[in-house]
Specification:
The protein has about 375 residues and is of the alpha/beta class. It is built from 11 helices and 15 strands. Helix 5 packs across helix 6 and helix 9 crosses helix 10. The chain binds guanosine-5'-monophosphate. Guanosine-5'-monophosphate (5GP) binds next to strand 6, helix 3 and strand 9.
Length: about 375
């Protein structure tokens, strides 16, 4: 993680990934523009690094020029764009290729397009290192795209945050602030569901129960649900990748959430790594693993009591109950160890009235 001015940024795309994309784009330019003697127009400041790399890879004859534009705030019209460094070359009849670092709404590229047209350039191509397809809303065709990215604010590889970060060769994204992501654990009978509900309301979190997510996807026959079902039907475990893709879709569905409560996932160290990766890709991370701790004998009594009224067969047999508790501890130990190493494990006494337990959880969460 890095800090630029007042903000934190987390790794997003490394140099190798970016350079692989540049190789691909450059190969296409080399193929498409042979004998065209193109005029590359580099849009400053951000595109300097990308342009350097593309031009180093461009093997045919070409010319290079630079423009620097600023548009007045809040306007998208081409006639209200400032040319800080103007375009001096004659563009009439030339093969012009605009080199951009990033295309977001497309305001800048639209302005530049207007500028070129006003100088008599009828056709031009656009190459950009990054494109945000969710946000781009103009009709100009973007001919060559290095990497499509989601709606995030990124820095590095020429892109800055208030002047800083342009020299970074990896790309970072803004870390979401104030997100609380909990991995919630509790043995059967500990009241995990009840507490998840309370925490969800109190902190405005989204509760992602893996079991519910599976049932939802299978019931609605989503692509991932159908895939998961094909494993379940064969009596096989659903591969982690399928589960993580479902969770990813849940997280994306709730992109404005203040955070998430993960329930039922992760269960293994590999899954914990995948979850970390998923959250990193969203600019956030697991804040804490919170585990409700309840003495085995209390759990057995609670579940037997519940079994009398719930009618759940697995709540009525003491042997079955003890085995479920054992399985829980076996699984939990792995994750407890994993998150303890990162100082993210918090055990919370789960015996007492519901509100007392909530208070204990709140006192942990408020320190995160
Ligand atoms: P537009 O909305 O006109 O397509 O993008 C405007 C300009 O905003 C881009 O040329 C770039 O300078 C800046 N910009 C857009 N998205 C990002 C981003 O994620 N990071 C940085 N550093 N600048 C961006």
């Amino acid at each position: 993680m890095i800090k630029l001015h007042d903000l934190w940024f987390v790794p997003f795309l490394n140099k190798d990934r970016i350079e692989a994309a540049i190789d691909e784009v450059s190969d296409k330019l080399n193929e498409d523009l042979v004998d065209e003697n193109p005029l590359f127009i580099v849009v400053l400041n951000g595109a300097f690094m990308f342009a350097t790399e593309v031009l180093k890879r461009y093997t045919h004859s070409c010319e290079v020029s630079f423009v620097k534009l600023t548009s007045y705030e809040g306007t998208a019209t081409t006639n209200r764009v400032n040319e800080l460094i103007g375009l001096e070359e004659d563009v009439v009849g030339r093969t012009v290729v605009i080199i951009e670092d990033i295309i977001d709404t497309g305001t800048t590229i639209e302005a530049l397009s207007g500028l070129l047209e006003s100088k008599g350039c009828e056709t031009y191509k656009v190459v950009t290192l990054f494109l945000k397809p969710e946000v781009y809303n103009k009709n100009i065709n973007i001919d060559y795209v290095g990497i499509e990215i989601p709606k995030r604010f990124i820095v590095g590889y020429g892109l800055d945050y208030n002047g800083l970060g342009r020299n970074l060769t990896d790309v970072y994204q803004l870390k979401s602030t104030n997100m609380t992501n909990l991995v919630l654990f509790g043995p059967p009978g500990a009241g995990k569901g009840t507490q998840a509900e309370v925490l969800k309301q109190k902190y405005n979190l989204v509760h992602i129960s893996t079991g519910d997510v599976f049932r939802y996807n299978i019931k609605n026959a989503t692509e991932l649900g159908t895939l998961a079902k094909s494993y379940i039907d064969k009596g096989q475990l659903v591969p982690d990748e399928v589960t993580i893709n479902m969770l990813n879709a849940e997280v994306d569905k709730n992109s404005d959430a203040k955070g998430f409560i993960f329930d039922g996932f992760p269960r293994t160290e590999a899954q914990a790594d995948s979850l970390a990766e998923l959250l990193t890709s969203k600019g956030t991370s697991v804040s804490a693993m919170v585990a409700l701790e309840v003495d085995d004998e209390v759990l057995v009594q609670r579940l037997l009591e519940r079994g009398k009224t719930s009618g759940r067969a697995d709540d009525s047999d003491e042997g079955v109950i003890r085995n479920r508790i054992k399985v829980y501890y076996d699984e939990t130990a792995i994750l407890k160890n994993y998150y303890q190493k990162q100082d993210k494990y918090f055990g919370v006494d789960g015996v007492g009235a519901i509100n007392e337990i909530t208070e204990r959880l709140v006192s942990v969460i408020d320190t995160l």
